[in-house]
Amino acid sequence: DAGVTQSPTHLIKTRGQHVTLRCSPISGHKSVSWYQQVLGQGPQFIFQYYEKEERGRGNFPDRFSARQFPNYSSELNVNALLLGDSALYLCASSSPEGTGLLIDGELFFGEGSRLTVL
Amino acid sequence: GQQLNQSPQSMFIQEGEDVSMNCTSSSIFNTWLWYKQEPGEGPVLLIALYKAGELTSNGRLTAQFGITRKDSFLNISASIPSDVGIYFCAGEDFNFGNEKLTFGTGTRLTIIP
Q: Quick one: pLDDT at residue B105?
């Protein structure tokens, strides 16, 4: 079975541009979360989507937005890129069955999309 | 954003040695998790803890959920070369029905030949 897949794996943008990152969850998983991992730090929560609805949002500016599609895949969009947006963007999927609780800690991460802003 | 306090930041050990790292928080969490991340990969779950005071093992790994629900530790016994990587603790906050994880700052484990 395929794990969480993300695309693109690497990309370079310049300040002010826009970027779209994509994520396909593990088959059967209905929840997708996005995390930002700056070099040398732990991942920071950006968004969680469940059944196409936003369940949670971290402390990120409105330049960051996301959505989830009927097939449970997801996109993360970042507008007006800043140098500080350079990071590894991680997508994670889970199957919380609507309780909002991790079941057996099953939050599975993809390999990430590494964004460099010049 | 908030990150949990994880120590030590890095460890240099010889193969066969035991490893201990811990994580503290100013907030209470309902679940504590330990992840390992290797270069070019996303974090991989090692151990999940669901009850205060719980002690859980996974092979050579042992982790405990602190009684106060504000801390956790991870021990690795008899380290081997494949243990190299960055270890992150994470606390789960399911306020508002979401699955937000708050991660620690990481402990980088290096094994000296």
A: 93
